[in-house]
Write a structure and sequence with these properties.
This protein is an alpha+beta fold. Helix content is 38%, strand content 24%. It contains two helices and three strands. A hairpin with a 2-residue loop joins strand 2 and strand 3. Helix 1 packs across helix 2. The longest helix has 17 residues. The protein is globular, with a radius of gyration of 14 Å.
């Protein structure tokens, strides 16, 4: 059975320990749901980006945690004044 995991990195690609204890997931969807729930704490804890791995194979990344924060701020301000 495949194991889905996240690699946590600084902006320069240096691996860092995450602020939230990571799990090993049985599906890509579970892994993505987890990052969606924990990205802000991970960012505040010093991770700038993540990579998704299936066993030892990189599926995608790096994915910036800062981009999600900017998108959330933009979507929050887009609804104001409407």
């Amino acid at each position: 059975m495949a194991a889905w995991t996240w690699r946590f990195e600084k902006a320069d690609g240096t691996q860092v320990e995450p602020a939230v204890a990571p799990e090993e997931f049985t599906t890509q969807g579970d892994a993505e749901s987890w990052i969606g729930e924990n990205w802000k704490a991970l960012l505040e804890g010093g991770a700038d980006q993540v990579r998704l791995l299936e066993d030892d194979t990189e599926i995608y990344g790096p994915m910036s945690l800062h981009a999600d924060e900017a998108a959330a701020a933009e979507s929050g301000s887009a609804g104001e004044g409407a």
